[in-house]
Every structure is written in structure tokens, then in C-alpha cells.
Design goal:
It is built from 2 helices and 3 strands; from the N terminus they run αββαβ. The radius of gyration is 14 Å and the shape is globular. The two termini are 18 Å apart.
Length: 94
């Protein structure tokens, strides 16, 4: 239940963050251990820099809710040159 509340708050935060920034396509990578192996998951998101911060916070909250210790979670991102049409628009919560 706590994870659902955190996720809901994160999603609400996305809607209340200023949308004045320019949207870009970002490649976001999550790195976390499972059973002694490091898992890397990539997601592309079309977002402003402020929205990207909220998306990364949501990803980290979801991993923590799944039992991954916060100090073992590494989330990196880089801007790529994809257009909005070429950028995946799937967010981690979808």
C-alpha cells in the first residue's frame, strides 16, 4: 500500500512541475542487483528536465518497493537526438 501511495504522489508531482522547459528524448538506464547479478534496464522518455527528475524518482521508488536497497540502485540518463515520434513514450509506471 505504501508503494502505491508513493507512486501516486510521484505521478501527481509530474503534473504540478513546471512545463516551461523544452522536451527532449532521454535514454534512462536502471542498474540494480538481483540474485548476485546486475540488471540493466533501458527506457526512453520524452520529457522536460524537470519531468525527468520526477520520472527517475518514480523509478527508484518502484525498485525500493520491490525490495532493492536504495544504496544499490544506480539510475543514469543521457539526452539522445531522437524526435518525439522516434522516442519511446512508455514511462516506468505504464
Amino acid at each position: 500500500m505504501k508503494a502505491i501511495k508513493c507512486l501516486f504522489i510521484s505521478v501527481l508531482a509530474i503534473f504540478f512541475i513546471s512545463c516551461g522547459d523544452t522536451n527532449y528524448c532521454y535514454l534512462v538506464e536502471e542498474h540494480y542487483p538481483i540474485y548476485g547479478t546486475t540488471v540493466t534496464r533501458q527506457t526512453e522518455v520524452w520529457a522536460t528536465a524537470n519531468e525527468l527528475d520526477a520520472i527517475i524518482a518514480e523509478m527508484k521508488t518502484a525498485l525500493e518497493a520491490a525490495g532493492v536497497p536504495s544504496d544499490l540502485i544506480k539510475i543514469t540518463y543521457k539526452k539522445n537526438h531522437h524526435s518525439e515520434e522516434d522516442c519511446w513514450t512508455t514511462k516506468p509506471s505504464e
